[in-house]
Amino acid sequence: MADKNTELEKIANDVRACTRCPLYKGATNAVPGEGPVHADIMMIGEGPGANEDKLGRPFVGPAGKVLDELLAGIQLKRSDIFITNVVKHRPPNNRDPLPEEIEACRGWLDQQIELIQPKVIITISRFAMARWFPNEKISAIHGKAKRFGNLLVVPMFHPAAALHNINLRPQLEADFKKLPQYIRDISGAPAAEPPKKQDPPAEQLKMF
Fold first, then answer.
1. What is the DSSP letter of 47?
2. Residue 199 to residues 132, 144, 185, 193: CA-CA distances in angstroms?
3. Which of 172, 155, 170, 168 is nearest to 206 (CA)?
4. Out of 23, 28, 84, 106, which residue is the most buried by the measure of CB atoms under 10 Å away?
């Protein structure tokens, strides 16, 4: 079996060559994502912005600075987590990605999740959140984890939200401070047992 780092780099190279949707035509660089292949935490945003498109890396603008500060608050560094997006090329003028663009990129995200096998996924866009929390609102569920088998998914406000609304910064910090305990909880959880008849299926077990 190929080394996992090699597999991850192959996915990144395939993303850079991707023409599955028209977004690549207007992009300077694809942004596959970055981080360690054995990361406990994966963060999934919406799509690259102007700075990310220019450099081919996620979160290199002002929001990235906020993210670095939030991680430092829980003794983590950017290099400890894997950061990626729902779509890997920048939508024109930062518009919302279209459903067909999200679907075209879904396979890349699926491969990254399967290879990295994070313990916790943080969604920081409504498009990422909708994958696990359809029809929910971030204002109602931010910072609250839901378990999907051996994975916890935690919806959070985008770090850029703290740039636009200073009142959200304390909430973001509080939500990030829950992450170490979430990781401990999921790491120490026993193997799942077959559900009893009265139990809901594992994917419906909520921590909120």
1. -
2. 20, 21, 20, 11
3. 155
4. 84
Judged against a pLDDT cut of 90, whether residue 203 lies above it is answered with no
Which domains, ranges and CATH numbers included, belong to the chain? 4-188 (3.40.470.10)
Give every strand in the sheet of 41-45, ordered side by side. Answer: 81-85, 41-45, 120-123, 151-155, 146-148
Helix (H) or strand (E) holding 45: strand 41-45
Once rounded to an integer, what is the mean pLDDT over residues 152-173?
94
Structure tokens at 196: 């009893």
User: What's the token pair of residue 94?
Assistant: 């930062």
Distance CA 56, CA 29 (A): 5
For residue 81, the surrounding DSSP H or E stretch is: strand 81-85
- Provide the pairing of β-strand 146-148 with 120-123: unpaired
Inform me whether the pLDDT recorded for 192 exceeds 50.
no
Structure tokens at 47: 């799509």
What pLDDT score does 105 carry?
Answer: 97
- 51 pLDDT higher than 80: yes
Encoded tokens for 135:
């029809």
Cα separation of 52 and 34, whole Å? Answer: 12
The reported pLDDT for the residue numbered 10 is 97
Task: Measure the CA–CA gap between 106 and 25, rounded to whole angstroms.
Answer: 18
Distance, CA of 181 to CA of 115 (rounded, Å): 24
Q: Distance (Å, rounded) from C-alpha 49 to C-alpha 54?
A: 9
Q: Is 151 helix (H, G, I), strand (E, B) or coil?
A: strand
Q: What is the mean pLDDT of residues 124-135?
A: 95
Residue 47 has pLDDT above 70, yes or no: yes
